[in-house]
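Why predict the complex rather than its parts? Because the way molecules touch one another can change local conformation, and only a joint prediction can capture that. The input here totals 239 residues.
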Amino acid sequence: MALFSLNRLSFTYPQAKPVFAEAVFSFQEGERLGFYGPNGSGKSTFFLLIAGLLKPVAGQICFRDRPLTREHEFRALRKEVGLVLQNAEDQLFHASVLEDVAFGPLNLGMKPKAAQARAEETLEALGLSHLAGRLTHQLSGGEKRLVALAATLAMQPRALLLDEPTNDLDPTYQKKLIQILQKLPVGWIIISHDFNFLQKTCTAFMTIARQQLVRCNYSQMHQHFHSHPLGDTPHHHNE
Ligand SMILES: Nc1ncnc2c1ncn2[C@@H]1O[C@H](COP(=O)(O)OP(=O)(O)OP(=O)(O)O)[C@@H](O)[C@H]1O
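Output of the joint prediction:
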């Protein structure tokens, strides 16, 4: 059974060309998928649809093979599929790091003390305990990014959706992120424009072509990046 899937899903932003047209896709628990593709092709949109933050124009999102429509049904998915947004600040809105990391567990119904203990354990497991007492808004960009990941992992999701997690990370923090990911017992989809990062963290790949989600093998991914040595070429979606 797929953890989540798209069933002939179509999506268009108002007054724009379609991003997805009857896209079909399924994610099995434990898969480690690298998601690459040009700017503006719809990668972030795919994550927002999975999380129920955007509504399809047609078709369905299924969680463990059950179609989701209502908000409370998406909540069950969001409990198990942790989304880390492209902009860490969109996800951190408390005064202190510990409060930010405890927020998810509290929201899942844990008692304050247990949620705080969970937050402390998560920060510790990620080697970020030294940040626990810091004011979130005073963190560096890279620190914020790792704290946003900690905030998601504190909910102990079964899968992760990471949107360009290496943005703001210097080589040391990138290495740290790779070490953190390698220790996790879960699968993920990682959106990235960084070939080396995808190569180190993922075992299968996907992209978007003609409003469809397409799985790719390593050599197709390699060729994509190889033919655009400076990264993905811009994709003018509305042309
Ligand atoms: N809120 C919105 N309203 C209208 N159009 C939008 C909105 N958000 C995104 N788009 C457009 O939808 C298309 C897909 O955007 P999306 O952010 O999903 O692409 P992406 O593949 O994640 O890009 P990038 O690699 O640059 O992050 C783009 O053409 C974008 O301009």
